[in-house]
Design a protein that fits this description.
It is a single chain. Helix 15 packs antiparallel against helix 27 (581-591). The protein has a five-stranded mixed β-sheet. Strands 4-6-5-7 form a four-stranded mixed β-sheet, with helices on both faces. The protein has 34 helices and twelve strands. The protein folds into three domains: 2-237, Spore Coat Polysaccharide Biosynthesis Protein SpsA, Chain A (Alpha-Beta Complex), CATH 3.90.550; 249-622, no CATH class; 629-736, no CATH class. Helix 2 links the parallel strand 2 and strand 3. It is an alpha/beta fold. Residues 1-163 form the Glycosyltransferase 2-like domain. Keywords: Cell membrane, Glycosyltransferase, Lipopolysaccharide biosynthesis, Membrane, Transferase, Transmembrane, Transmembrane helix. This is Glycosyltransferase.
Length: 743
């Protein structure tokens, strides 16, 4: 029992235990921790009154709860031969009769220790809150499993304490003890213990000084556990990495990601893409919409990026800045850099090749800009890199854990962007070919393909099923009202039906995003890699990164995807599509380092050349050009007017094509009826008055009028009940004539 200023409680507490334990051999060790009151005097009286049963230990100065517990344990071990040791307090809040129950539980459970937890804690509310926070912190940091980590009622077998070194101060001693005795092959059980209100004195554990000391000590305990390998082995490996160069690359990538994000945020261009705004809106409408719920994820854009943003998007700051989605992009950027290093290291057999590949990608200004935005490319890149690396490891080792990891990254890619479906097909081909080359019969090939495909294709199956259930057609993502390629690809697009122009367009987009120098080095790297390995099963995986090239050329030719470059179309549109080839370009350009004897000097020159050769940040030029165009200025103008004049009430407004206005006007999403408002959109288009619509926003652009304009413009219900308040080249904003009270 530690004792500090317990003059009024000590005698009652000790004699309670003496009476209860009278029929069995026992010793009671009390440590007076430099108490300035009469605690020491009372303790000496008890030791004199009950010689051999009460052992008195005195600290000359107050050393804290942790030191008192350590002294008590040491005294019990050194001066007694008791097999079981109970750790408790001297403040009278625990009773001795619970010890009899604990002894029985220990025998019945054949446990090494019985740890108490207070089922009904007799403490003030604030102390209960502090204790809950402390318990959760200890569970997270030290992986203690106790539901009441600082409960001072612990019955332990002597062997648990014999060689145990404790260093925790103040309240940190208890979680340290639990963490260390639970680290070995021991059986520890929990059991409820009664807890009673303190009758005399006051508690010191809630003082700021004690709390700070406990937190500081807990951090030190965590450090020691990690150092000794008792907890958080992954953290220990991170602190002492097997590949220090990879650790440095990862750290630099993280720093670079944050610096770039801060720069682009300060420039005010993080949400320049209309699609970036749309991604944030989709996530926000899951939690804030007239018909909020998972159905707001829609059926056109794949759901994973929006699902990942939902936990943060409900916080206004993360929503208005786009950080709810940008954080995921930034993390994905770091993951991509790590995997590119590991892929190239595995290909070339030299870590400096990995460094070159990581640098070529990480220093690309287009990659840095996209990772600062809510766009979905960065997440896709991470999934692709992860899938290819683990596929490469499976091809090399044949371990099923690696193909399982590859399939998991693949399914995440298929739920991020449709390019992930191409990845899924490419990886399937590699798996099938590799299994074929390792011929062990058809059953072996079939088993490998099924093992990979059950997970990898589950995302595609789930998405088609989702579209079928929600929209009534499994291919709604392709044929739906807002998914048809004809919405973006015009009949006169030069790429449609012309394979040569399609190839030229995509090559120029790649050069705009990656640079001709990098592409040239990557092409040479592909040739050398093929010359060295041919189509060998163990080295086939990196080729999967090249599968996006024919895919994009075909989609341009078939009119499935629009992509404009200045040299052919006179403008930029979706030029970021070329960035998916940056992964393969970085890997194969980095592979060249393996062919240079003096790798480090070449590395610096090669990286500098490839980075400097990137012709600007085309992925940023494109959205900025739109914002500065007449259409962009009109969007901004109408959004600004709405932001200044909106005074409450429901708004009827199509989302498609008006995303920028919705976001920048800062209209409350819960008041906007749009095409995703279940069973509200169509009735509002027919009769906005009955639907209690106060504001109506419509786009009248010739040839691309929105649904609101087509349904209501010129109708009696609009002319008789709504007043036109704002009009520009092709935007009209109405408000109900009979206005409702402002809320």
């Amino acid at each position: 029992m530690p004792a500090y200023n317990e003059e009024e409680n000590l005698r009652t507490t000790v004699e309670d235990f003496l009476g209860t334990l009278a029929g069995m051999e026992h010793r009671i060790v009390v440590v007076n921790d430099g108490s300035p009151d009469g605690t020491g005097r009372v303790l000496d009286e008890l030791a004199e009154l009950y010689p051999g049963r009460v052992l008195a230990v005195h600290h000359q100065f107050n050393q804290g709860y942790g030191a008192a517990v350590r002294t008590g344990i040491a005294t019990a071990l050194d001066q007694t031969d008791m097999r079981r040791i109970l750790l408790t307090d001297s403040d009278g809040q625990f009773r001795a009769d619970d010890l009899l129950t604990f002894l029985q539980v220990q025998r019945d459970e054949r446990a090494d220790g019985v740890i108490g937890y207070r089922k009904h804690r007799a403490d003030p509310a604030m102390r209960k809150v502090n204790a809950w926070i402390w318990t959760q912190l200890s569970r997270v940091l030290l992986r203690t499993r106790s539901r009441d980590v600082d409960c001072a009622y612990k019955l332990l077998d002597r062997k648990l304490l014999d060689d145990l070194t404790l260093t925790g101060e103040a309240a940190a001693i208890s979680p340290e003890l639990l963490a260390k005795i639970g680290a070995g092959h021991t059986r520890i059980v929990e059991h409820p213990v009664n807890h009673y209100p303190r009758q005399h004195g006051h508690q010191t554990g809630a003082s700021i000084r004690v709390i700070l000391r406990s937190l500081t000590s807990l951090a030190g305990v965590y450090r020691d556990l990690v150092r000794d390998g008792l907890k958080w082995r992954r953290t220990r490996r991170a602190l002492t990495p097997a590949d220090p160069l990879l650790a440095v690359v990862t750290g630099l990538a993280a720093v670079l990601s944050v610096v770039a994000a801060v720069y682009y945020f300060n420039q005010g261009v993080v949400l320049s893409y209309k699609d970036a705004v749309s991604h944030v809106l989709i996530a926000a409408r899951v939690v804030d919409s007239p018909t909020a719920g998972v159905a707001q994820l829609g059926g056109v854009w794949l759901p994973l990026p929006h699902v990942l943003a939902v936990p943060l998007v409900w916080i206004e700051f993360f929503y208005t800045t786009g950080l709810a989605s940008s954080i995921g992009s930034m993390i994905s950027f770091v993951i991509t850099v790590r995997y590119l290093y590991k892929i190239t290291d595995g290909m070339a057999g030299t870590r400096w090749a990995g460094v070159a590949a990581a640098a070529v990608f990480a220093l690309n200004t287009n990659a840095l800009y996209l990772q600062a935005t809510p766009m979905t490319e960065s997440l896709l890149f991470a999934c692709i890199a992860g899938a290819v690396y683990h596929l490469q490891e499976w091809c090399r080792t044949g371990r099923y854990g690696q193909i399982a990891l590859s399939s998991m990254w693949t399914v995440l890619a298929t739920l991020t962007r449709y390019e992930g479906w191409v990845l899924c097909l490419a990886v399937t081909c590699v798996v099938g070919y590799t299994a074929l080359r390792r011929w062990r019969g058809y059953t072996h090939i079939e088993a490998n393909l099924i093992f990979f495909s059950v997970i990898a294709y589950s995302g595609i199956a789930a998405w088609c099923g989702w579209n079928w259930i929600i929209f009534g057609h499994p291919l709604y993502w392709q044929v739906g009202e807002y998914a048809k390629p004809s919405l973006w690809v015009t009949d006169g697009d030069q790429t449609v039906g012309d394979l040569v122009v399609s190839a030229q367009t995509y090559l120029i987009a790649m050069a705009d995003d990656i640079g001709y120098v990098t592409l040239g080095l990557a092409a040479l790297g592909v040739v050398l890699y093929f010359a060295r390995h041919r189509i060998h099963a163990a080295t086939l995986a990196p080729y999967a990164l090249l599968g996006f090239l024919p895919f994009y050329i075909f989609t341009l030719y078939a009119g499935q995807r629009p992509l404009h470059v200045a040299e052919i179309h006179g403008d930029l549109y979706n030029v970021r599509f070329g960035m998916v080839m940056a992964l393969g370009a970085a890997v194969f350009a980095g592979f060249l380092v393996a062919y240079v004897k003096q790798a480090r000097p070449f590395l610096a020159v090669a990286v500098a050349a490839t980075v400097l050769a990137v012709p600007g940040t085309k992925t940023l030029e494109e959205p900025v050009a739109y914002l500065n165009s007449p259409g962009g200025r009109i969007d901004v103008g109408s959004a600004t007017w709405l932001k200044e004049n909106y005074d409450g009430g429901r708004v009827l407004m199509q989302n498609f094509g008006n995303e920028l206005v919705t976001f920048q006007s800062q209209l409350p999403l819960g008041e906007i009826i749009y095409e995703g408002s279940f069973r509200m959109w169509e009735p509002a288009l027919e009769d906005p008055v009955t639907s209690k619509v106060r504001w109506i926003y419509m786009r009248s652009s010739k040839g691309s009028e929105d649904g609101v304009y087509k349904s209501l413009h010129g109708t009696p219900v609009l002319n008789e009940n709504y007043q036109l308040l704002y009009q520009d080249a092709d935007r009209l904003i109405y408000r109900a004539i009979r206005t409702e009270p402002v809320r």
